[in-house]
Amino acid sequence: MRRTEAQSASDEAAKALADAEAAADQALNARFRFEEDELVPQRRATRGLEKEAQQLGGELVQLKYRLKDAAYITAQEQNLHAYKEMKEAAEASRDAAVGAHQDHRKSLAQQWSQFFLARLRQINPAVESAVIDPQDFTVRIREKNSAVKAFHESSVAGSPKAVINIVMLLALRDLGRAVPTVCVPPVLIVDSPLTGLGAGGIDQDTGIRLLDTLIDAAHDSSATALDCQIIATLNDPLPAPKPAVREIHLSEGHRYFDDAPHIDD
After folding, report:
1. How many CB atoms lie within 10 A of CB 236?
2. What's the mean pLDDT in 200-229?
3. Neighbour count for residue 45 (Cβ, 10 Å)
């Protein structure tokens, strides 16, 4: 009876073991199927999501930089608008200043031309018109019954360019008296501006008129006069004494400047 009971208990235990093993197998199979059907896809999906999250994180960092750049660009665009207005205002101011300067330059050139014509007529009464170009300061002179002459074509007293230069600077001095802001050169040195004094006829008359013009400029005692001392070198003696002129005859014994070089002729 005890053996039968033990056998019976053994059989039940074996059955219970078999059932447990079957249950364990079923559980293992279920666990395997769960891993295959559920966990593996989820892991794959998780890895994909993690990878996507990493990519999105990198894109997020880039977007942050782009947002900063966009904010900077937006601010700069706003500044650009203000700078553009400032630039346009500066250009308008510059254009207005350039226009005013050009107008002032033309006005001064017109006044200078008037003084130039008046001074030139003192030396050559045949001059009908004389114009100084406000851009390059070239001159064009018209004499009565003749065509317009350019600078190099005008001829007076044997040295046209020297005479025109002298007259232009005398006229500039006159302009400086009328317009105090005009700068006048303090020194003028011209070599032999009175060529022709020892000749006769037109050249001598023109040279004397040029000398009288220089004397008039040097002895202007008006309230607006500018101090002026004129030293002119002459190749020929004066035809007649001039009370306002001091003549210094250069020779081997008197060369005016102590350090003047010695010459043989």
Report:
1. 14
2. 70
3. 10
